[in-house]
Hints:
This protein is of the alpha/beta class. The protein has one domain (3-241): Ribonuclease Z/Hydroxyacylglutathione hydrolase-like (Metallo-beta-lactamase, Chain A, 4-Layer Sandwich). The chain has helices at 47-56, 74-77, 80-86, 96-104, 108-111, 114-124, 197-208, 230-238, and strands at 3-7, 10-13, 25-28, 36-39, 64-68, 91-95, 137-139, 144-147, 150-156, 165-169, 174-176, 214-215. The protein starts with a strand and ends in a 5-residue tail after the last helix. One zinc ion binds at residues 71, 73, 160-161, 179, 188.
Amino acid sequence: MKAEKVVTGVYFIAGEDEFMPDSHVYIIGEPDSHDLSMIDVGLFGKGYKKIQAIKNAGIELKDIKRIIMTHTHLDHIGALKEIKEKIPHAELWVHRTEAEQLEAGDERTVYGMDMFKQMFQMQFGIKPGEFKFKVHKKLEGGETLNLGGMKWRVLHIPGHSMGSIALYNPHKMILIPGDVIYADYNIGRFDLFGASGKQLKESLYKLAELKVRILLPGHNRIVKNLEHDYILKTARQWEPYLF
Length: 243
Ligand SMILES: [Zn+2]
Ligand SMILES: [Zn+2]
């Protein structure tokens, strides 16, 4: 696993999918700010590899001040315990709806469906109640965060999960949309706990209003020179299925 610089202020660590998807991780913040944010942490068991990739890129763990979750599915939040072991001072920021679940130990969003819960718990030996965490900041959507010298707007984009957010940097036209939209006209699934096709459609159209050049999704390839109406085209293509 390797951290790749996308632009100044954004590192990309590709997820390592095996029989289970492992989300990408992004590290954002101006390099000399000493105020970095980690966006998502990836799948259970993949945390130490992420830490190693961060260290190999010359990033100091003490500079990572917070972990911001695009949403709390297992392939994004699974490694949180491993990461917190190495970066214990980092705060956890999550959209309010999923933050409340994490704090209550409600794991329905984490696993998405009961079948997955049983499968994952057997596969990885994860105990019930593993995903109960204190959340330091509950995001609402609509706010602008000043993160390590960069401004990132938070957009609440439910549909894939109820507390999905995107982070958008207008200056560099960078969008980090979690699992709501991917490259190659793909979108996130909308059949898991808390998902809604109708909300996903609305969220895609909300994202389509943004000027985006660099798309940094939760899985698959990243795009550094996005065509100008890519999100709108994707939304239109999927609209018949989203209700
Ligand atoms: Zn995912
Ligand atoms: Zn997801």
